[in-house]
Specification:
By secondary structure, this protein is mainly alpha-helical. It has helices spanning 3-28, 36-52, 56-66, 74-86, 90-101, 108-124, 128-136, 144-157, 161-171, 176-196, 200-213, 218-230, 234-247, 256-265, 269-278, 281-284, 286-300, 302-315, 319-332, 335-354; strands spanning 358-360, 366-367, 383-385. Among the domains are: 176-284, Alpha Horseshoe (Serine Threonine Protein Phosphatase 5, Tetratricopeptide repeat); 291-353; 355-392, Rubrerythrin, domain 2 (Single Sheet), CATH 2.20.28. The chain has a three-stranded antiparallel beta sheet, with no helix packed on it. A hairpin with a 5-residue loop joins strand 1 and strand 2. Helix 10 runs parallel beside helix 12 (218-230). The structure holds zinc ion (ZN). Zinc ion (ZN) is lined by residues 360, 362-363, 365, 374, 376-377, 379, 382.
Length: 392
């Protein structure tokens, strides 16, 4: 058992023994022939001995017996339970919190707090249904906001967007901006589900709702563009995609391929090339440069595309660009050079394959695809495309 844990417990339990046990005991037994200290101290040390000898279950038994639950020791029981939960020993935390709520002396406030902690224990041990019941039961108590916050966590994990919406409104009732952004994502996820079922009419309805919640949402613009594309409204699709440039240029690289298709369908490839030229590539990333090199290749030939790419690689070296440069060079070289280039190609392919494409700004989670909610820390809008030599 790590020393810092034992130190933590000692700090936690010393005042308990002193304040709640011994002092209360002294008052209670002041005139008694047997000293309460004599009764309690050996038990207390026994508990500590169990802890030090890495027998936490026995230690818990002793401490639970020692610290009779009353109004003064509830906080300590809660703290002890939370300490075990933080260490990942959820079963022990559950035992302590269950022991607490079984006591009739608790005030309503203390009971609600203990139920909340027990709910968190179940949540952390993955028993979502049981945790949900506890939190639901707290929605009409003073712990309403905190219970709703945990319910949001559960419903987001279960992708139950309607229930997540209902609870987010309770949790974030005084943080409208955060609430609206989150609810816009929920509507987008509902729209994505309907996309999967090819129910495009409902997709449009959900996206409209999402836009109402958050007119600056990149998620909405991206899905709206794809919906319009699906319905062959290429002009509307381009309008939706181009909103992203103003909303957050970091994400424009996500839609350039789709935009290229729209411009092509409208027979306006030249307009797309002009659009790409005016985008600041320092912000928009490597996809932007690659799309440009593809169009230059189509319009002006391979040599021009190679010249363009070499210029860009000098400004912003990247594995993906190098890989594309090798592809283009393979088209122009003779057999002798081609075999050397193929070796090089194997390396650049590998570099692109292992590179991180997206990263959470909050917890550092690395991903190969774009997540609107980080799978690591569960924050929304923290995963961003990564710029840099190997990542791109
Ligand atoms: Zn994260």
């Amino acid at each position: 058992m790590p020393t810092e844990f034992i130190t933590g417990l000692l700090f936690l339990l010393l005042p308990v023994a002193a304040a709640s046990g011994w002092i209360a005991g002294r008052k209670k037994y002041l005139k008694s022939s047997t000293s309460y200290v004599d009764e309690v101290a050996p038990e207390y040390y026994k508990g500590l001995r169990y802890l030090i000898n890495e027998q936490p279950d026995k230690a818990i038994e002793v401490f639970l017996r020692l610290l009779e639950v009353d109004k003064d020791t509830v906080e300590v029981h809660l703290a002890l339970g939370n300490l075990f939960r933080r260490r990942g020993e959820v079963d022990r935390a559950i035992r302590i919190h269950q022991n607490l709520i079984a006591r009739p002396v608790l005030s309503n406030e203390q009971r609600a707090q203990s139920l909340l902690e027990l709910g968190v224990d179940y949540l952390r041990s993955g028993l979502l249904d049981r945790a949900e019941d506890f939190f639901r039961g707290l929605l009409d108590t003073t712990y309403r906001t905190r219970a709703a916050r945990y319910l949001v966590e559960i419903y987001e994990a279960e992708m139950d967007w309607d229930k997540a919406m209902e609870c987010a409104r309770i949790w974030l009732h005084d943080d409208t901006e955060n609430l609206n952004r989150r609810i816009a994502h929920y509507y987008c996820h509902k729209a994505e589900e309907k996309f999967g079922e090819n129910d495009l009419k409902t997709v449009r309805q959900f996206l409209k709702q999402a836009l109402k919640q958050d007119p600056d949402s990149v998620h909405v613009s991206l899905l709206e563009g794809r919906l319009e594309m699906e319905e062959e409204n290429y002009r509307a699709a381009i309008r939706a995609f181009r909103r992203i440039e103003k909303q957050n240029p970091e994400f424009i690289g996500e839609v350039l391929n789709d935009m290229k298709r729209c411009y092509r369908e409208l027979d306006r490839t030249q307009d797309f090339l002009e659009y790409l030229h005016q985008l600041p590539s320092s912000e928009t990333g490597v996809n932007h440069v690659i799309e440009m090199s593809d169009l230059i290749q189509e319009n002006e030939g391979v040599e021009s595309a190679i010249r363009f790419l070499v210029g860009r690689i000098e400004q912003l070296p990247s594995a993906k660009m190098l890989d594309r440069l090798v592809d283009l060079s393979l088209l122009t070289e003779d057999d002798h050079h081609r075999s050397k280039l193929k070796c090089f190609k194997r390396l650049t392919e590998k570099l692109v394959e292992v590179g991180t494409t997206y990263k959470c700004n909050y917890c550092g989670y690395n991903a190969r695809k774009l997540y609107w909610q980080c799978p690591g820390c569960k924050h929304w809008d923290t995963v961003k495309p990564v710029r840099g030599t190997t990542s791109e």
